[in-house]
């Protein structure tokens, strides 16, 4: 393409030394594939790091990066050199898409969590055998730490050590009925704290 050999005409009004991203974006607006490849090489790792800081998940950050460069190629005409630098345009797009992805993932997790607790409540009225498998482990662990020690201990032994109620009663040297009550009461508190109280 003739514009590759004449960057001044492709990036008119943009100082390539002061705003190399902007100059490349203006070339890409004219369909310059070499400029697109150069932009990806120079900015890809920076934008990936930006997305990773928001998402804290490399796989999701890489997906966002692909979306950004697809938008750069397809929708590059939305870049306006007089509004800001090319780097600022790319970074803003990256952060916006990463935040959108965080919100989408969080919304899906909330839907899954709510549905899981509902199913545990409907299918088994006594949810002690299912509630911890229906909630996110981190949230359950945090909630577990807020329970009275005797309830948290009994639940931890039942779900993390996979001991039977009889084995727990023997190890704690308490009646079987006491173990069952502690687990039942503790699970009720957990369900309430984790948003599933009905």
Features:
198 residues, mainly alpha
Describe the structure.
There is one protein chain. With 198 residues, the chain is mainly α. It is built from eleven helices and no strands. The chain has helices spanning 2-5, 7-10, 20-29, 33-55, 58-75, 86-123, 131-134, 137-144, 149-159, 165-172, 176-193. Helix 9 crosses helix 11. It is rod-shaped and about 80 Å long. Mean pLDDT is 80; it is low at 1-11.
Question: What's the overall average pLDDT, rounded?
Answer: 80
What letter string, H or E per element, gives the SSE order? HHHHHHHHHHH
Shape annotation: rod-shaped
Q: Which spans of ≥5 residues are poorly predicted at pLDDT below 50? A: 1-11
List the helices and strands and how they pair.
Elements: H1 2-5, H2 7-10, H3 20-29, H4 33-55, H5 58-75, H6 86-123, H7 131-134, H8 137-144, H9 149-159, H10 165-172, H11 176-193
Helix pairs in contact: 3-4, 4-5, 4-6, 5-6, 9-11, 10-11
Report a brief summary of the structure.
This protein is mainly α. It has helices at residues 2-5, 7-10, 20-29, 33-55, 58-75, 86-123, 131-134, 137-144, 149-159, 165-172, 176-193.
């Amino acid at each position: 393409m003739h514009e590759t050999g004449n960057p001044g005409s492709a990036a008119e009004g943009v100082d390539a030394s002061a705003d190399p991203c902007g100059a490349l974006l203006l070339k890409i607006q004219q369909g310059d594939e070499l400029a697109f490849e150069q932009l990806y090489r120079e900015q890809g790792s920076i934008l990936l790091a930006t997305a990773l800081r928001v998402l804290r998940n490399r796989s999701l950050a890489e997906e966002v990066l692909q979306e950004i460069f697809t938008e750069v190629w397809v929708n590059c005409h939305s870049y306006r050199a007089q509004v800001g630098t090319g780097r600022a345009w790319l970074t803003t797009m990256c952060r916006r898409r990463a935040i959108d992805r965080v919100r989408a993932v969080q919304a899906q997790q909330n839907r899954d969590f709510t549905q899981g607790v509902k199913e545990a409540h409907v299918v088994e009225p006594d949810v002690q055998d299912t509630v911890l498998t229906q909630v996110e482990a981190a949230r359950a662990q945090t909630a577990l730490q807020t329970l009275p020690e005797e309830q948290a201990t009994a639940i931890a032994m039942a779900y993390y050590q996979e001991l039977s109620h009889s084995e727990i009663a023997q190890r704690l040297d308490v009646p079987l009925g006491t173990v069952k009550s502690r687990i039942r009461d503790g699970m009720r508190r957990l369900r309430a704290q984790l948003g599933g109280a009905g």
